[in-house]
Amino acid sequence: xxxxxxIISVIEFKxxxxxxxxxxxxxxxxGRRDQEVTGILVCLDVIPEILDEAAKLGxxxxxxxxxxxxxxxxxxSGNSLQEEILIRAIRNDIILYASHTNLDSVIDGVSxxxxxxxxxxxxxxxxxxxxxxxxxxxxxxxxxxEAVSKAIFAAGAxxxxxxxxxxxxxxxxxxxxxxxxxxxxTGSIGTVHYEPETRFExxxxxxxxxxxxxxxxxxHPYEEVAYDLFPLININPAQGLGIIxxxxxxxxxxxxxxxxxxxxxxxxxxxxxxxxKQVRKVAMCGGSGIQFLNQAxxxxxxxxxxxxxKYHSWFDVPGSLLLADxxxxxxEQFAIxxxxxxxxxxxxxxxxxxxxxxxxxxxxxx
Length: 366
Ligand SMILES: [Zn+2]
Fold this sequence. Notes:
By secondary structure, this protein is of the alpha/beta class. Helices cover 27% and strands 29% of the residues.
């Protein structure tokens, strides 16, 4: 039996909810964590046709990229689309779960999949998160070094770029005197004890803090575990918004725009003045990402792909950069593959469906 909480733990390992932006409403929106899941339908937006499709497929879990509602509702008369979705979901015991800006903020998330589809190499985050990393220092007796370090890494610590299990270890002696009523793992009450220990240092992102500390405490043999947590000012290159990568080989601007049109199945692309230069460095941000135009410029990108660009923003584009609006729905269409892939990898025999409903509210007359 697969429960809602089992599905959620897979989704949240991929896109931790702590990474969502303040305006967002990602997470479990309706349903109980201990409910049984009959099937999962993955979509970008929740509209009534998605609820119909889920019912036909026998799915009681709808996993969307965009939350169907962002702000508090006070009336439930069904007069708005948001109210209708919520009422139908609750009435039919449907679980609604959204993974939105947290899925945008991981390197292999929405923008990462866009870059993969375009075949970009040397991908990195365009706008990395700041003040996100913590250094953990823990003192571990030699007999338990392997078990504790393994648990700490498994909980999400120790990743730097494409390397995991990163730590620094130095041996020394720990001292302690166990007091009355204590239960020392080693040594005896009332006597100062010297124990060979390893000072184990590693780093972790803030959103993994609770899991990592719990894993450390659960696997450590001491009654009182000595550990330090230090906030770091290093940038976290693994988390943040947008992606920049390179084309190999480079190509002309019209050639690249044609490729984008094909890959994203676009009826039309809006773009700024061409520079008549080759395109090698490509920056992108799925959805509304014009606020990162300066980061795209400073990163030396030849082109910046995003969506929802207003008229006046086009005047801010310097001659060194080509800007292209590829549509909000179109730029994020592969988000459902990102979500479905992690579920299928973890639950290979479970019913996971990608929606066949086109939820794009925008049409084009050509
Ligand atoms: Zn979006």
